[in-house]
Amino acid sequence: MMSPSKHDKPSNRRTLGVRQIDLASVQTASNEIVRDINRDIILELIRFKQPLARVDLSRLSGLRRSTVSAIVEQLIQENWVTEGAVVKPARGRPSTMLSVNDAMVTFALDLRPNRAILAVVDLSGRFLSRETIATDPDPKKTISLIGKRMRALRKENPLKSFKGVGVSFPGRVHPTMQRILLAANMHWHEFDLKKTIEQVSGLQVEIDNDANVCLISELWFGRLQGTKNVVLVAVAEGVGTAILTGGHMYSGYNGLAGEFGHVSVDPAGLLCQCGQKGCWETAASSRAAIRTFNAAAKRRVKDIHELLQLGQKGDSNAVYALTEQARALGRGMRLITATLSPELILVVGDITTVWELCGPIVAQELANSMLAGTPPLLRATGDAELARLSGSAAMLMQRHANYHHSTHETSGLTIKHR
Q1: pTM (2 decimals)?
Q2: Fold of 104-214+391-400
Q3: How many CA atoms lie within 13 A of 255 on its CB side?
């Protein structure tokens, strides 16, 4: 790792409670910058490279040892970090090793139109439990069922400290009000999701769009080091996107930025759940692939997983349906390249299961749709459900840490509220 300059100022890259910290080129904060930037750097270094001694943190971050010690003491007091074994080197003073607190966990909740997945996740991103809960058309009944499971899981893990609930939602949520703005595939527009989950859980709740939390997962696990302009395309019942521009996650004025799935690409096309005709997701979503297969084949599939299995077995109608979906997905990316010109497009979701079949088709359509220049890199990520759950946990942990720390004053500097 290259040593950062002590005179360089950090880039405060935070939106939606998440800051991208590039550990390959850490920039440290000077006295003019609020201390929470340095605090996030220290916490991220511990999380990625644990166990670490304070002297290692000083060397890796470029911060003075006194600054590192003060930040570490704060993190220990707030239970984010714990002290472990004392290591005595051949030369010099013994060092106490630091790790993130394994006892601190969060609930991660992934809400889908036909099911909910509830997990318990620790600070290192490890899953302690993961289960599927059947949903009810009545959102109140659904959240009531989820609340019962949360209470049971807390009883089953008495030594764990539950810090809140991170929720992945297939729609748009106001970034500050945390109210549902758009839920074309869920129809929960008038439901106060945050308040209801807080009532049944007794915990802090943070909600975000499913594509956003997938992108947060990529940031949380350090898979975007050095990459500042990214669009993540989440393909499921619909098509959603998340935007990283100039190192910042971008949600727009009211949280609706990135709804490319609800931009019409065919005015004479099918009616979308949003009420418009020919939206991108009517041709590029998992539902579109299922519809194409059911229209072409003599049999019907019940869900995308059955269709994907048929495609992997070489069923001609399944392959046709999936390749048509891939063509629509690639063509629609012109909306992204012409608007945002990212260096990388990530695809997460059902279609990545058959990426060997669909990936080259998406890439070719993407290249054909460019206005000018070379197309951005195209990459499929891992398990979509896993990304939504880990991203939900990461979002909650980041916002909880930043909110808690924002009430303190440290070394004479008032920590600013987000």
Answers
A1: 0.81
A2: Nucleotidyltransferase; domain 5 (3.30.420)
A3: 20
